[in-house]
Amino acid sequence: MYRYDEFDATLVAERVAQFRGQVNRRLSGELTEDQFKPLRLMNGVYLQLHAYMLRVAIPYGTLTSQKMRKLAHIARKYDKGYGHLTTRQNIQFNWPALVDVPDILDELAEVEMHAIQTSGNCIRNTTSDQYAGATAEEVEDPRPYAEMIRQWSTFHPEFSYLPRKFKIAVTAADRDRAAVKFHDIGLRIHKNDAGEVGFEVYVGGGLGRTPFVGPTIREFLPKEYLLSYLEAILRVYNQQGRRDNKFKARIKILVNSEGVDGFANLVETEWNQIKNSGVDLPREEIDRIHAYFASPKFENLSGESKTHKAKIAEDKEFARWARTNLAEHKTSGYSIVNISVKPIGGIPGDISDIQMEAVADIAERFSFDEMCVTHEQNLVLPHVKKDDLFAVWSALKAVDLATANIGLVSDIIACPGLDYCSLANTRSIPIAQRIAERFSDFQKQEDLGELKIKISGCINACGHHHAGHIGILGVDKKGEEFYQITLGGSGAEDAAIGEIAGRGFSSDQVVDAVEKLVDYYKNNRQDKERFLDTYRRLGAQPFKEALYDAA
Amino acid sequence: MKIITGNRLSDGLVVFLGSDGQWTPALERAANFADDAAKTAFADAQLRVEEIADLYLIDVDDAGALTGRETLRESIRKAGPTVRLDLGYQAGA
């Protein structure tokens, strides 16, 4: 877990005091809304359909029980008793009053949190693998690098007014749980042939109205050069990214217009000028940051837990959850626990104050006080002893957080859509709810295997529909909600942009349409093939026929 | 016909400009303006910077009911999220 030093604490306190003054000047009418809007956005305050929304940064998703309890307290005291987990591993509150926001930010600062860089044309919260520090798959823990990027990017004076927002993600495993190829910069920590550890650098990925899978601009960057290389990329973008057209201002457009090699050359040229000029961190600073993420003191345990095995044998519901929601831990005798925040028929990513406190209690008692928000709007308890899994499951079940559906058809990413968002054209959440209800049978879900459905209520693609095995995009058709289906996308290491299947469906038709696709898959898959693999093997045509067949 | 709407500055809640010149949370109490009169009223309302954020006009029919392309959006603003009937104005006071 990161720690604030005196500079961080001062920085955040000063920012809150400054914003308090700005809010007061706005309330008195001294500032107009046009003058105030960029200031509030710099502090995470949006105006949505029904109220303001405050987006709080959770660095690479990681939380302690103290921080989680503070979020629960804020939900209860200043909001309507819940928060919403976002695809940048953040949390947002949907109903704060503007007059309360400075107090909320003061409360957040007490636990080393803030809402800086959760909006605006700056470097946003750096995201990472929710299994970081817990999975045996990783070359190294990616969080220290995410933290270095965070410290470097916070209030970086040169990059506070970029052409457009900028998102960075870091992973250190071959299995990509952080959608790194859909980021402005994606970093994959890996070992080269000489056994040295460094980064593969992807630049110019993104979703939105012009989706791109980020191409590699450098196969191997020695890790000590992380910050100077990032700075070189940002410099090229800051100088050459388009500012004349908001829709063409993301770095992906620049990478595309320069060509991958052309862009990479620009970066290399810039980097050669700055790379040994003190941008990179000195060894002792790198060590200090690594020390914050030292592994917890795991016990020496056998890989098999008798307690766990016995409980699996006697409780089918627990056994199912153990099959779908657990992942292998790097340490013998431990598991990674995924907490689904996708109850059947519920709102993806919404979590109540009571649930937050329950998770905080569980993490404190059973997971070395750590938890992590995932970009799929769920939570992870990274280090749970196998002996404790039944107790953890029981405690989660008591607060309706034991849904056994991680990675399955009802584990849907959905943007807030027109129920909350002022940019949306259509609702997303009700579609997610109805799909989950249609496939509510857990045995059937499990039989279908991994199937990622992602829903966006407008072309901005906050619901990652391009990266869905089945993607759903809401479009406005003369004032009515219509839904376009895309097929074959993936946000993982096999990243791909889904192809549009054909004409859209009305709100009444869209769930049936999804079921037709799933049925076609079920009848045509081979062995344990995932939906995506069947789609890739057979191609789009038969799926389209299944979807649009007159019968 | 037009209605003037915005979000109240202090807490962001949806309000409409009422016939009495006050902001009201009830669409039913909103003043309906003919298109020409709406322009003047809107310009006046824009001067009330210390009361309101994000002001704009919405279409209503002669009976004052929402109409046009933004009907769904505005009906959700008026009532609250369709997925949380316990929140927003639809939940009652």
TrEMBL record, chain A:
UniProt keyword Transmembrane, yes or no: no
Main EC class the enzyme belongs to: oxidoreductase
Record has Iron as a keyword: yes
Highest taxon above the source species: Bacteria
Positions of the Nitrite/Sulfite reductase ferredoxin-like domain: 52-111, 347-399
EC number assigned by the record: 1.8.7.1
Coiled-coil ranges per UniProt: none
Short name of any one Pfam family annotated for the protein: NIR_SIR_ferr
UniProt keyword terms in alphabetical order: 4Fe-4S, Iron, Iron-sulfur, Metal-binding, Oxidoreductase
GO molecular function per UniProt: sulfite reductase (ferredoxin) activity
Co-factor(s): [4Fe-4S] cluster; siroheme
Annotated ranges, domain Nitrite/sulphite reductase 4Fe-4S: 119-273, 411-547
PANTHER family, per database record: SULFITE REDUCTASE [NADPH] SUBUNIT BETA, SULFITE REDUCTASE [NADPH] SUBUNIT BETA-RELATED
Protein name, UniProt field: Nitrite/sulfite reductase
Species for this entry: Hyphococcus lacteus
UniProtKB/TrEMBL annotation, chain B:
Domain of life: Bacteria
InterPro entries tied to this protein: DUF2849
Name under which the protein is recorded: DUF2849 domain-containing protein
